[in-house]
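Objective 1.3, modelling of assemblies. Example input:
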Amino acid sequence: MTADTRRFVSQLAHNEAVSQVFLASEKQLRPNRNGNLYLQVDLSDRSGSVNTRLWNASEADYKAFENGDYVHVEGATQLFQGNMQLIASRIRKARPDEVDEADFVTLQSAEIEQMRHRLEEILRSVSSRPLARLAEGFLKDDQFMAKFCRAPAGMKNHHAYQGGLLEHVLSLMELVLVVAPRYPQLNRDKLLLGALLHDSAKVDELSYERDIAYTDEGQLLGHMVLGVTLLDEKVRQIVQQDGQPFPERLLVELKHMIVSHHGEYEYGSSKLPMTLEAIALHHLDNLDAKIASFSQLMKDCPNVDSSWTQYFNQIGRKLFKPASEE
Amino acid sequence: MTADTRRFVSQLAHNEAVSQVFLASEKQLRPNRNGNLYLQVDLSDRSGSVNTRLWNASEADYKAFENGDYVHVEGATQLFQGNMQLIASRIRKARPDEVDEADFVTLQSAEIEQMRHRLEEILRSVSSRPLARLAEGFLKDDQFMAKFCRAPAGMKNHHAYQGGLLEHVLSLMELVLVVAPRYPQLNRDKLLLGALLHDSAKVDELSYERDIAYTDEGQLLGHMVLGVTLLDEKVRQIVQQDGQPFPERLLVELKHMIVSHHGEYEYGSSKLPMTLEAIALHHLDNLDAKIASFSQLMKDCPNVDSSWTQYFNQIGRKLFKPASEE
Amino acid sequence: MTADTRRFVSQLAHNEAVSQVFLASEKQLRPNRNGNLYLQVDLSDRSGSVNTRLWNASEADYKAFENGDYVHVEGATQLFQGNMQLIASRIRKARPDEVDEADFVTLQSAEIEQMRHRLEEILRSVSSRPLARLAEGFLKDDQFMAKFCRAPAGMKNHHAYQGGLLEHVLSLMELVLVVAPRYPQLNRDKLLLGALLHDSAKVDELSYERDIAYTDEGQLLGHMVLGVTLLDEKVRQIVQQDGQPFPERLLVELKHMIVSHHGEYEYGSSKLPMTLEAIALHHLDNLDAKIASFSQLMKDCPNVDSSWTQYFNQIGRKLFKPASEE
Amino acid sequence: MTADTRRFVSQLAHNEAVSQVFLASEKQLRPNRNGNLYLQVDLSDRSGSVNTRLWNASEADYKAFENGDYVHVEGATQLFQGNMQLIASRIRKARPDEVDEADFVTLQSAEIEQMRHRLEEILRSVSSRPLARLAEGFLKDDQFMAKFCRAPAGMKNHHAYQGGLLEHVLSLMELVLVVAPRYPQLNRDKLLLGALLHDSAKVDELSYERDIAYTDEGQLLGHMVLGVTLLDEKVRQIVQQDGQPFPERLLVELKHMIVSHHGEYEYGSSKLPMTLEAIALHHLDNLDAKIASFSQLMKDCPNVDSSWTQYFNQIGRKLFKPASEE
Amino acid sequence: MTADTRRFVSQLAHNEAVSQVFLASEKQLRPNRNGNLYLQVDLSDRSGSVNTRLWNASEADYKAFENGDYVHVEGATQLFQGNMQLIASRIRKARPDEVDEADFVTLQSAEIEQMRHRLEEILRSVSSRPLARLAEGFLKDDQFMAKFCRAPAGMKNHHAYQGGLLEHVLSLMELVLVVAPRYPQLNRDKLLLGALLHDSAKVDELSYERDIAYTDEGQLLGHMVLGVTLLDEKVRQIVQQDGQPFPERLLVELKHMIVSHHGEYEYGSSKLPMTLEAIALHHLDNLDAKIASFSQLMKDCPNVDSSWTQYFNQIGRKLFKPASEE
Amino acid sequence: MTADTRRFVSQLAHNEAVSQVFLASEKQLRPNRNGNLYLQVDLSDRSGSVNTRLWNASEADYKAFENGDYVHVEGATQLFQGNMQLIASRIRKARPDEVDEADFVTLQSAEIEQMRHRLEEILRSVSSRPLARLAEGFLKDDQFMAKFCRAPAGMKNHHAYQGGLLEHVLSLMELVLVVAPRYPQLNRDKLLLGALLHDSAKVDELSYERDIAYTDEGQLLGHMVLGVTLLDEKVRQIVQQDGQPFPERLLVELKHMIVSHHGEYEYGSSKLPMTLEAIALHHLDNLDAKIASFSQLMKDCPNVDSSWTQYFNQIGRKLFKPASEE
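Predicted structure (tokens):
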């Protein structure tokens, strides 16, 4: 099914018959009040997800597919309390030929390619010799770049989808390109490498083949500590390759940008930013992340006829979306 | 004495004879251990200030000038513990013809004029009709503009000198000009007005004819509450002038940017930022203020032969200045 | 139906047939486990509210009335887990002649009139000339007084019902009358005006025609900032009327009482109380609000045979109600 | 020397010859820059204290008196930087006949007697039988009452002088008398006993024969924990005397008022207030303490020609004293 | 039914017929979507608890037993979403002869006896004369010891079962025995008494005949304040018995260990630890409590095939259980 | 001068003539009130330090030695305000033959050797194969062990002297040896390695040849992040040497113990402890550090005739030292 014919989750209306493929997650087998079992599962595509129920389900139904599988579903939509729900009459694992992956990714391969190209372009504008060597070391590392272009920037909040890390890092670099010239005391090249490195270990902190989750080392060490190790390994590699040393203090400064970029101890920074570039990186990262996550919260909010979103515990407030005519 | 011949405070070396005009502040009459009195005073020009002592002083010496006066001083410099000190043999009130005000201001009239011109240019690029009317209302208010171009942005921390408010606001607007286009969901015009308005009541919160100090209403109400009143008055004025109403909700949004721009309750914001523009303004303001204040702390630090500044209580850290060759 | 014959929510017992009018809110259409829909709604009168269900409901049932409507309900009560529930067999919009508004308001018109009369009496005892002028300006403003007598003091916590603002402000003034004489250093008249003004902008922060909710400007600016604007407008008005200026510093002090009355930054005060009256007002307001809200929490608690209320997250504790014989 | 002829510390002017008795504290022997020693000591009477220096002092001068002694001093006053200082030519221990104790106490015996009388009057108005028994138990305990009438309410902040505890407790009771009737849900008698008990163990937490200081058990346990023990002992005593039991739960409630009266964990309360009386007591205590301490800070502030006091670290703000004509 | 034949809750598998005795708690009568009622109850033995439902229940079923009763249950297990559930066909109050109390206690009488014996052994090794007297006073107090051996150490978190207090205190004493010798500056005997006393008033703070709950005085005063009273009473008793005084300062030190053992104000300590023994006791208590509670959380976690537990709000993290082969 | 004849700083009494070698630090040239200069310097040996002044000093005196130099001093002691001071008549750089290094180190070479030997003994008792390999890798690394045995455990607080790191780590291991057996769920070998590793990067975080100071990388990255790098390098080394892989997850667990050992975000931990060993290590480390630092504070306190130390800002309290007879 192509994007032309597919009914995306965000397009579903009340009382609509459905027969197409979704990505399954969070499946559960539950008893109803009469002791009969039903299956509950979240079905999603790139536009969103819909809570789905299969009444009178069996354990066989429950075991017929795994979370992360593509499933073919027949059923009908039902609206109540403003929320859309899907009542399924049948759920089965989808055949590969039924799946168009493009329906399930937020960022298309072409978009990702384009962003990667721009990232390379920017990094190749770095004029500091050791920083350019380092950037090149990452750009030529196919395995790293493959993961870097696929990883999300987080579990939730901002850029929490495949390719989100690349998107966030590129957005940050573009900010550096326009903001750094306004402050002559800032070193643009250090800032660009800081942008590349600060979240780079998200490639190891998270797993993101289908579901997005923390890896064990991600949960136990975090992307800031993992980022220092990742940088150490890359520097050792390029030093081995070209036989030239990497400036010690510059390396320490880069690591400092990584471990301090959350800005405050309470957000897991083990050090407060102490260099101008570390301070600027923290604020630029914060700016990009907050605009992205608040925009996302506004966009996802189901209160369509209100200027106000619901109250979000994680940010301690509601958000206000002015009418567009203003 | 012109800037050509003057020895600026930042240029004074050990054992140098001094005979020129300074701005006096923080004068005190103190007894030494033998019960004899001496006069202590801070003498400054636009490049910095130097602690000065007049041994064997009398109450007459103490009363011969006021804080905020220009004084002519004869004496010699003396260095110890890395700090420069001035031992005065004579301090008297300066005659007007001895004073070149340009020696005592951080920003020259020409610089201020240039910044004001650029501010007008930017504000006249606002295309939203009501926001352009509002901006024009401020630009044409000579009394407001005179104060706005003279006020500092604060008592200490960043931009704490005459013209500092204009400098900070303009810097923020330039940021808006390059950052807003990167986020289509942001309304550039609202952000520009937010930049103009957020600290505008510093013109009333502070007094800054010679010394910088809080006014009574500044201390009791703060520039965020005063800013709402200032905006209300301006809107009433322009509505009276052109007889057209000002959009209610837009006004509320502008006020919201003012009262929320410190971002957190603990910094005196009575509301958290709830619109995208309020969030962006808070982070851009923070970015500009932090880069300015940390740069200033590094510049002012007397530890000349160290990469580290002293520990600053107000930011809970030392700062690190990498050697320039990096 | 008059209060004599009505069965108030607080009087309903198990297995009682019900056929009378209620105020509807929080209606929802939900599916049960078999996919059949039911309607859930909160029905209230001035004594409390009861959760109600209409099994096998249709979308027509859902659309037959709005939240905030008076509805006539037939059904029967049912007790389980100590909670009363109403199982409705029929819910329809009530005819105006079926509704006795007195059944639905916490405070009767007569009570409100009496409180308003007492408020006027107290305010007219103010002897300071400018403060008396200001008080009179509010008392003669019919539109303001109408809203002031109808507004609640909050969304939840204390005095969260129509007339609650008047009740709270009057209670606070009565406290001022007995407490101020004990501290000669306190200015009784300033405190009385502070009591009037501190929450006065709740008339604009909240909407309270039927449901109590935040207005847009209330949510974005808060009653402290709105209160300063409201005071500014009133002062401008009375100055226009009698042609005499209002003392500048006194006005700043009044505004300071408004913006600092929550006492701490974390509760949204943009300034800490710095005058004796501001400090006293904060503590008296706190005293009245806490006694009112804790009393309410104790009264509303359904744990009838326990000295302990449930645990309340918002105050971080349970409350203890000693047996009355003590 | 009687109060008629004495020059109180608060009356001393510049260049005044002094020859009278003071109370000594904080004495120190210090070297000046030439290695010569001088003696520094604080000299006080009930109106305040003045920093005093005896140049060219010896260890014998240092040992000639103790902190807490009355000393006779000859010397002359000297004003600088707005502070009064006393340059002594001679300091010796005073003879008993030279000392009029009335010059050194804030509260005169007659005032204390009058307050004690009023305290008894109020406590004897308690109608609850067990609470009246308890109150009587304290009133008839001469040893307790002697300490209670002599103790200060604290080391610093509010009521930090002999008799201050009685003054604070009585002020709180007077508040209870006027405030409790406004809230029928409050038990006036419990509140009166709470007022008596809440700080009662300050008689053991502090030592206050001459200097005010913490006792070991005061520092290690605090007046809230000590207050529970003190109450337990008193109850055991009255039960032994009249052979009647004291109601268990009432005793727990009284103890709860003691241990929770600081209101928040961070101020050392081991429990949050959970009864209405505990909540009311906390807020009334806070009201009385804050008005007393802020008034004191304003009164003691040496900035005579300014409406602003200095910045006080302990309360995180300056205070504002409006001109009296307002 | 003996432990040999009983199927413990932790052993129950899917689709297993059940007919045996459980301890009932948290029973509720609830309507299902059709308005029919069902009974929900938690059934437990010493190995854990299982959520149970009796469909189509009546009020008579609800009233047939009380929380805390032993009930005989017939039904069958059912697994879904990884959770075991019991669908009961019949629930009746159990006859005494059906109940083997050993099935319902975490710690057997013999274990408790053994721990009590070891506790006595350790306490009798105290060589300080007054501390040995005090320890003996508790050991010979049969009523105290009976409660002390039965009480839990808390409502939840660590050692929250009958005998848990003894287990925790003994574990702490064993720590003291091995740790104190490593720090010669620590007084082992004071630490042993501190271990005995610090939580001793949990015997009064909690009720634990069947359910574990707070007593009124426990909730209103807490075990730290109650512990001081309990110690005072014991000291008075032993002084009466042997006519010798108890050293004052030592008593204050013991009380200080009690009131400061939570270590921080925010955890309800009214004083911070100020003696070496108080500091050591706080950290040892913390060590034992944290290891016990984190081990329990790991053990109770139903995520059997994951190294990670769920996220626990109370500790702000997930826990990681490495595979045993490591 | 040997330890037999030397007067250690801690032994100096009033009015004692001094002529011996000290270690100099914190030297400053200051003017006195007459404009004459004097030299101030801290002189120390292993027993403590004494503030010293050389009146009428010149810049030549100031430049005659550096901080960190051994200097020979002639002068006399002088006591005032309870503090010992040294008035020097001459200060010159000491000749190497005048210096006995043993007078200036807290821990003697023999003590350090003994501790190192015990450390090796304990680490060689590790039975887990990979952990034993790792331990051996460190023990055989002479360069690492030399630094490890010389480094302090901190700048101030606990074990802030050369050899302090070894002393602290060994003390922690001894705790592990006695505490781990009490909790079978704890892995003793992981804990021993955790003890070795947790502060191991203090060898790089600090410089400690003479003065103790932070290195640049220490200040910018901290010993937790540096410790992960140090561990990575060691593992790479041993894997290269014996060609066997190191278990991945075990390595992650060890790193987790390093990065979480401060226990809370606010103390710079970038992760909270999530394994039982990480939790135990945090609490044992805390126990050892707090006992060491509080003991040191008590020992260093100059209030010799009081049970109370001064108030320490860093721990928010005074400390109480009971008389020894107790």
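The mean pLDDT of chain A is 88.
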